[in-house]
Amino acid sequence: QSNIYQEEHRPQFHYSPQKNWMNDPNGMVYFDGEYHLFYQHDNYENVFGNMSWGHAISRDLIHWQEQPKAIVPDSDSLGMIFSGSAVVDKNNSAGFGANSLVAFYTSTSPKQQQSMAYSTDKGRTWTKYKENPVIKNEVGDQIPDDFRDPKVMWHKESQKWIMSLAVKDHVEFWSSKNLKEWTKESEFGQAIGSHDGVWECPDLFELPVDGNTNNKRWILLVSMNPGGPNGGSATQYFIGNFDGKYFTILQTGIRWVDYGTDNYAGVTYSNMENRAIAIGWMSNWQYAGKVPTQPWRGAYTFPRKLSLKTVDNIIFLTSAPVKELDKIVTNTRSMQNVDVKGSYDLPADIKSFKGKLLFQLASEQIEEYSIVLSNDRGEEVVVGFDKQANQYYIDRTKAGKTDFEKGFGKRHIAPRLTKDNHTDVTLLFDAASVELFADNGLTIMTDIFFVNKTLSKISIKSANGLNIKELNYSGIERIWK
Ligand code: FRU
Q1: Is 24 assigned a catalytic role?
Q2: ipTM computed for the complex
Q3: In this predicted model, what pLDDT tens digit does every residue of 429-458 receive, in sequence order?
Q4: Hey, which of 26, 71, 83, 147 would you mutate to test ligand 1's pocket, going by the most ligand atoms within 8 Å of its Cβ?
Q5: pTM of the complete model
Q6: Rounded to 5 degrees, what are φ and ψ at 285?
């Protein structure tokens, strides 16, 4: 084990597989003290193809143990194992046994259709249901083959299982009593939201608004490729009601879960009582196959807690790193009332964190600033706020290797969504990624990058002058033992 997870650009506190290509997270389910993470994984190569479900288990959402492959293509001749979800069948509605884990995925041959597999040994081994597919593709040959990514949840109010499915330019909701026989209930989205790409990986779940459990709303996540706000693939969301049959929206406008280029196909954990925890694929279909890493390609975002927050009568989805992060945060340094005029360098001890760090600032002033993470080769990742444009940005133009893809070395932007005079920013830096959580998680950006040497210096810049009321930075421990 000693030299794996030590390669150049290898994430140190984000999940990535030991080897080969990985894209979407799949089948995320919490059961018996374990967080299961399945994922789109190429069995043999470091490029997309031969898709199966890889598997990792964690007891704390932080430290992961890679497992043997969970579901692989085989003699059933239904093709590859595309994205999907998993549930705990507490009451044995499918008949595989009480508390069996039941997974749904898309089979790809001869067309995309929905299949099922189950496990009665806490997710260690999986058996494909012999009557697969459970939902056939009957849309006909003239319709493109986009019928995939089943995300199943238990809908208490109607006492039914509900499956959300991505069908080219809309989401379909199907229902079932026994997880085997499914009835189509409704369609959503043909004329709503962004349609600059194909819709994929839907997820439907409910959350309290502003923490008030008497006032809940349903959230529908829809990933889309291409057409993201900064190019390539990205995930939009809708807020509304769901009655067991129809999803109806309560507010219009296009909203993005994450404005960065590198958070895709993210969905939430199943069987979590009080938290909605999402994990996304930290890459983009625009260049995922070209990123300069080996023997693996692909990593996941840090797990995020999702919430709903009202700002000026609009409900927004917010994200924050899960609180388990505290377990690996070390050597926190705090400063108060730091006046940045021109440029301010953080103390050199930042070097000892080896590019894995948590950085937070809070101010009672809205002013332009940038946070520059750099090395002595002139490589840098710049995160900042542009007051004039009222936008946050991440600039990876000079962040090491960029020429593997023409559109990679760019500056990405995101709107500031509140007019509040208080502002705060939390940044997570790992070897090859930065995650920005601004204004208490209202504006999110995730970007990957490939520097040739560890970023070991941080400077904060503000030409006009910024008073930082509270400034914290910490190291983060590597999760691989
Ligand atoms: C999203 C996606 C899914 C599909 C999977 C295939 O990134 O295109 O729609 O199931 O990847 O790996």
Answers
A1: yes
A2: 0.98
A3: 999 999 999 999 999 999 999 999 999 999
A4: 83
A5: 0.97
A6: -60, -20
